[in-house]
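Hi V.,

You were right to ask for the full record rather than a summary. Here it is.
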Amino acid sequence: MVRRALCWALLLLPLAGAAAAELRVRDDAGRELVLAAPARRVVALAPSLVEILYHIGAGDRLVGASAFSDFPPEAARLPRVADHAGVNLERLLELAPDLVLAWGSGNGAEAIARLERLGLVVFVAEPRGLGDLPGLFERLGVLTGRAVSGAARAEAFRARLARLEKYARRRPLRVFYQLWAEPLLTVNAEHFASDLLARCGGHNVFADARPLVPQVSVEAVLAADPEVILVPAFGAGEGERWLAFWRRWPTLAAVRSGRLYEVPADLLARASPRLLEGAERVCRLLDGARQP
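Predicted structure:
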């Protein structure tokens, strides 16, 4: 871990001493971003991106965030510039960011294009699996002047992720991951939650569905007959209510065997460093579900 962090630091030394110390990284949309110096005023338009910046030691660079950015606790004090209705451009511009972090599928192409037309530098993040997160730590570390800590966090994440490899080789289980209840939403194979399931030996029964977050019917779930039903618990007993709904069909394999589970939503629904904790929990749950 230390060796990789030192390598990143050595790579950046020539830039630090150059007259024009440009920082160059490629975002998840495949575009190269260039900054003349590390960003000092960053706005993050997704709670997961806020978490990542704090995780790599760049939380002090944040000047604005989106709604529901509540981890770590100090993130709750950041000014809000976006919510489910969209981005408040006036409020965002008042914060004068030199870098905006956007979530590609969450914020949407139109909103991102609008930010760029205003002359803002926008880094688009779109992690599709746990294996994408370490590289995101490294690139955001470079852009915020935290290359060494970003690389160290990435290396630690990779090492911890490698310990889950054993689960993927175990007997596969058909899993229905219910992202939401009304409408009934799930994820397809391209979503990071589906990658999490696969790493635990779970087969997403709607892997081939479209789009990234498809709406499905109760009849489709019954036809898929999942062996496990997994829901993110958003609080106030919501996860248990969702699971209680499926108990109305006792012939469903997951109901018949009692394999209905909930995991805290922040550990499943955010592509943040805590997604690894969510994966560890799900792997243990699925391993228990394999027992007779």
